[in-house]
Amino acid sequence: MTLVVLGADAAVARAAATLPVEVVHVRLPGAAPLGVPAAAHLTADYQHGPTFRAFVDEVLRPLAPAAVVSLTELGLEPAASAARRLGAAGVPPEVVRATRDKLEMRRVLERAAPHLNPPFAAGDDAEAVARLFGPSRAGAPVVAKPVAGTGSNAVMLLRAPGDLPDDRRNRATLLERYVHGREFSVETLSSGGRHTCLGIAEKRTEGEAFVEVAHLMPPPSLDASGRRRVERAVAELLDVVGLTDGPAHTEVKVDGDRVTVIETHNRPGGDGIPDLVRLTRGVDWRRAALGWPVGVGPCEEPARAVAAATVFVTAPPGRVTAVAPPPAPTAWRLEHWDVPVEPGDPVTPLRSSADRLGMALLTADGADACAAAVDELRSRGTVTTHTPEEEGT
What we know:
Mean pLDDT: 94
Number of strands: 19
CATH architecture of the largest domain: 2-Layer Sandwich
Shape: globular
GO molecular function: ATP binding; ligase activity; metal ion binding
Radius of gyration: 22 Å
Keywords: ATP-binding, Ligase, Nucleotide-binding
Largest sheet: 8 strands, antiparallel
Pfam family, one: LAL_C2
CATH superfamily of the largest domain: ATP-grasp fold, B domain
Distance between the termini: 66 Å
Strand order of the largest sheet: 13-12-9-10-11-14-18-16
Protein name: ATP-grasp domain-containing protein
CATH class of the largest domain: Alpha Beta
Order of helices and strands: EHEEHEHHHEHEEEEEEHEEHHEEEEEHEH
Number of domains: 4
CATH topology of the largest domain: D-amino Acid Aminotransferase, Chain A, domain 1
Number of helices: 11
Oligomer: single chain
Domain ATP-grasp: 106-294
Helix content: 25-40%
């Protein structure tokens, strides 16, 4: 049995190598070697439709793969299209499009589950945009985001229609009424239309682009009834978009009893969230997300920690002047530390995930202790910068 995996990084490749199947990796031209054994390592531009269709017919078809999958955002639609073209297992392309296209997802929810939606408008619908900023909503914020964006790229908080740049007044931009409350990420694995929640992480964000600076699992501010509400809302969303099998990473906001869907993807979450699932649930989330179409389900082992978090290092824009060494915690445990910046490196304003400077993975003996550890690490000042204003003094 052969499994084709598009766009794997090293962590995904290591997980794929544990599956009882022949694994064929397909990666973009110029990608660095994975350094992980596989049945084959192939190169193809899967982001260019005509080129990739020819590759599927000429190279993948003779391999007769049982399934084609991807856990990377830009590989999701090509993997779905290839699976259908080959008659292999995979997520249907129309389902992937309904999750990757945020405007299409809003319209699907508007028809079938409007209570999960905030008011929204396409960037090229001037009347709908004006309604979002109507007289009764004067000054209320509206979020603008790319329809197919990830990583907080090009996300803006608007307070008046005129705040939307002319080059964003098109179908590629989605506007949504800002939703109050706390934000959570929900990891699910579906099988035959049954959705199993593998973990919920509480997010912390920073700035008006809402860049994620920490993920905590389990969520400190969500009680048992709140978790059930979130799980029901996510299951309803997945039913509506038609995702019956495979992984999903769904982001929601909770304000009182109301759960609002922010977005969803048919892959595990990024930012080290699979490691939080592994530590707190005992499930190799990457392996399960790859193995479902070849009959390999999640294998649960004893959890290593009660609570875990990923924490991201940020600093004011300028140039790095000092980088502190890893902390020596006493009330929590540091599992991984990766802060690659060095003195002299430039630091840009925090506008997207790419502007973060490093990451730590930590564990603790409870959700509250984990939250305190995140606060400690975020306030530590790991990276010191010299700002442009200071250079002029």
